Structures are given as C-alpha cells and as structure tokens.
Amino acid sequence: MTAEETIDASVGGPAAVAAMRERALAALRGALGEDLGRPYALVDFPRHSNIGDSAIWLGTLACLEAVGAPPPAWTCDDRTFRADELARAVPDGPVLILGGGNFGDLHPRHEALREQVVATFPDRRVVQLPQTIHFDEPAPLARARRVLSAHRHLHVLVRDAQSLARARDQLGLDAHLAPDLAVGLPARPATGARVPRVLWLARGDEWSLHEAPEASDDVEVGDWPDEGYPWGRRRVRLLGGLVRAGLGRVLPVRRALMASYEPLARWRLARGLATVSRTAVVVTDRLHGHLLCLLAGTPHVLLDDATGKVAAYHEAWSRGTPGVVLARNTADALRAARAMLAQVAR
User: Fold this and answer.
1) Domain contains 290
2) Sequence-ordered list of residues with C-beta below 8 angstroms from that of 91, at least 6 positions apart, any chain
3) What CATH number corresponds to the domain at position 118?
4) pTM of the model
5) Domain-embedded: residue 272
6) Measured between alpha carbons, how far is residue 7 from residues 53, 129, 169, 227, 342 in Å?
7) Does any domain span residue 7?
8) 14 exposure class (CB count in 10 Å sphere: 0-12, 13-18, 19+)
C-alpha cells in the first residue's frame, strides 16, 4: 500500500495514545506483580538533550502513578549510579530501568549500566521498562545474554515484535510487548493557529536513513530545537561536570543533580510539544516525533530510521491511526505530507 493510498488527515492521535496507554498500564502492572506499591528505584535518567527520552521519563512517572505506585524512592543517571546508595534507599523493593532505544551495543554506556544493575541485584525484582533491542556485534550480545538470562527475577518489556523475538531467541529472556511509556503523558492538542507548512523533523545523526528535501515555501527542515543553556540547564551542566570530575561521590552533589531531573525533563518536553504543534503537518523519522505528534493531534508522515525502530513501532501500535502515514522514502513522504497539508487547508 502506498502512502498516497492511506492518507487521512483527520486527527486520531489522542484516541490512539489512550489505547496504547491502557496496554502500557496493564503491562506495567504485570511486570511489577506483587511488588506494585512498594518503594522502588528508577534508574538511568536521560541526562542528554534528546527530547524523546525526557518524554519517556515523564511518561514513566505518569504510568507508575496511574497504576498506584508511589514516586521513586531513588533515581540516578548513567554517571550517578551507586549500588550501595540504592540499597540503602530501597532495601528490598524493585529496581526499574528506564525504557527507550538503548538496549544493545549502539549505546554501550547505557547497556553497561543495565547489566551492572542486573548483576548487582540478583535476588530482587528488576524491571526493564519498554525498550527496542538492537545488537550489531556477537560479543556484546553474548555478554548481555550471559548476564541477563542468569537473573531469576528479571522482567523485560519491549516495544515491538522484532525486539520481542531478539529478547526471546537471542537473549533467552521471558519478554513481553508493551508500548513506549511516553504514552503515559496526557494528550496536548494545540490550541493556537498552526503555520500552514510541513515541518520536516529529521534526525541529524548516524541513524538517519533518508535525505531531507530542500526547504521551500511550504516545507521547513530541522530537528529538535537546540538546547541552549538557560539558568536551570546551566546549573545541571555544572552539577554534571562535578560528577564527571569525581565529585559525584559527594552525596549533596548527586542529590542536587537528581532533584533537577523532573523539571529539566518537563522543560525539554514542553519545547518538543511546541515544535510539533507549530505547523499543520510534520514529517519525522524520530519515534518520539511520532508520539508527540499523536499527543498534540498533529497529522504526520513517518519515515523509518537506520535501526528500523520507527516502522517496527508503527506496525506494533499505531498502524491504521487516522492522521498517520508511513512512507517508504523522501519523495513519498513529501507527496503524502503535501496532500495532508492540502486536506487540512480545506
């Protein structure tokens, strides 16, 4: 089926997100089991500027609240993890590892943290929140299988069918499907007038698969906004620098950094939602460009990225959603977006 044959610029995003949210909550209840409601740790805050990962963090907190869990008793990022501190704050409750797309050898720092957590806490429930799994090399895959499959209480959630097969067949894990937890965020339909243009929201890194078109009168090309350094962000940058310099062992420094996680994530999310709410139509190869468009009620066209996670997620959870088209290439995406723009303008 071509992009042109599936164009529907009606807004079905909020309803699609609500359906995904119910599936996510059910999966979260199942993964937490009898530990639901107990104090827990939430590991691996996304200290980097990627807006999508901040959406995951905030959606995770919202989902946990919705299933009756308290706020996390302890949090960390990939530089502030301390096993002894976690054990004091959460003596016997579960350890939750943030979801996203860093399960595998593409993001070795995060994979190392995941394996460290699993190896350090063999006798308590560890929940890997919904992830996409991708390994390129056999040695990291073998190490991950050895560490993860040895854990007796590891509960793994994955975002798509390909990751489910990898978890079960390559890693020997008992994994289950669940949507990305950014769907825990409330719908945020735009209230103001939108610019009658297409925003081509494209990755600028090595995982970009399709070349962006030239900007024109009806198409603007960009990515998530540059982070910049307002006062709050400068403070977080300073604290992170202290941690990297070795002062992370000083508890007040870590506590101050951890206290910044939620407000920083909210600032990033607000900028992402403003980006996808500004124009009438969006084209994106970012998974959370897709999910934030759904939350904002923005008709949009999807392109896959080099890892295949965008198309895989669309196939698992959002295929058939009004206002969403999966295109094969740049030319198809541009045609579909302009057709959507014409429908919206009527």
Assistant:
1) no
2) none
3) 3.40.50
4) 0.90
5) no
6) 29, 33, 36, 33, 11
7) no
8) middle
Say how far apart CA 216 and CA 246 lie, in whole Å.
49
- Into how many domains does the chain fold? 1
Closest CA relative to residue 101, chosen from 228, 240, 203, 244: 203
Domain that holds residue 145: 14-184
> CA Rg, the chain, in Å?
20
DSSP states along 201-246: E---STT--SPPPPPBTTEEEE-SPP----HHHHHHHHHHHHHHTT
Does 225 reside within a domain? no
Output the six-digit token pair for 253.
């420094």
**Best CA proximity match to 210, nearest among 135, 101, 284, 130:** 284
Residues facing 177 on adjacent strands: 158
Local confidence pLDDT in tens for the 346 residues of the chain: 233 333 343 446 778 889 999 999 999 999 999 999 999 999 999 987 789 999 999 999 999 999 999 999 999 988 889 999 999 999 999 999 999 999 999 999 999 999 999 999 999 999 999 999 999 999 999 999 999 999 999 999 999 999 999 999 999 999 999 999 999 999 888 777 899 999 999 998 888 889 999 999 999 999 998 776 554 455 556 656 655 555 455 567 667 777 778 888 998 999 999 999 999 999 999 999 999 999 999 999 999 999 999 999 999 999 999 999 999 999 999 999 999 999 887 6
Q: How far is CA 124 from CA 32, 40, 150, 182, in A?
A: 11, 11, 13, 26
Contact present, 3 and 325 (Cβ < 8 Å): yes
Residues 6+ apart with CB under 8 A from 76: 41, 43, 44, 45, 82, 86, 254, 258
First to last CA, the chain: 25
CA angle (16 as vertex; 291, 35 as ends), nearest 5: 80
d(CA 331, CA 187): 30
